[in-house]
Amino acid sequence: MEVVITRSYEQMSKAAAQLVVDVLNTKPNAVLGMATGSTPLGLYQELVRLHQAGEVDFSRVTTFNLDEYVGLPANHPQSYHYFMDEHFFRHVNIPRHNSTSPRAPPATTPPSANGTRGASRNAAGSTSRSWASARTATSRSTSRGAP
Fold it and tell me: Which residues, at least 6 apart from 120, have a Cβ–Cβ distance to it below 8 Å?
């Protein structure tokens, strides 16, 4: 593991985006794990900027969103699916069928029952790189059916 220290959030976002671009230049059909929330937002904004400048192509990428709130439909403004669409997916050329988000099952459904974990393992194989893999405490606690 390599730890990169930068002086600012903006520099960190640009450095992380360059790592993703380097991966996609080497493996255009890479499988990416997409975390949600404010932490990776600068990364997504920089990737959108690079895509709009013609510096990165996402047309062969497969993505897996790592989080979702239990019980929220994908089109709800507070859902992670909506967040990712608003801040990333609608601005780049990832085919819709190449992007998977966890379904938001009822609180009584075990987290592993939504099928995303197995699908992401099958898609990734042994050569995948996950560049945004943090899960939020909120999604973990709600996916366990917290009281």
Answer: 31, 33, 64, 100
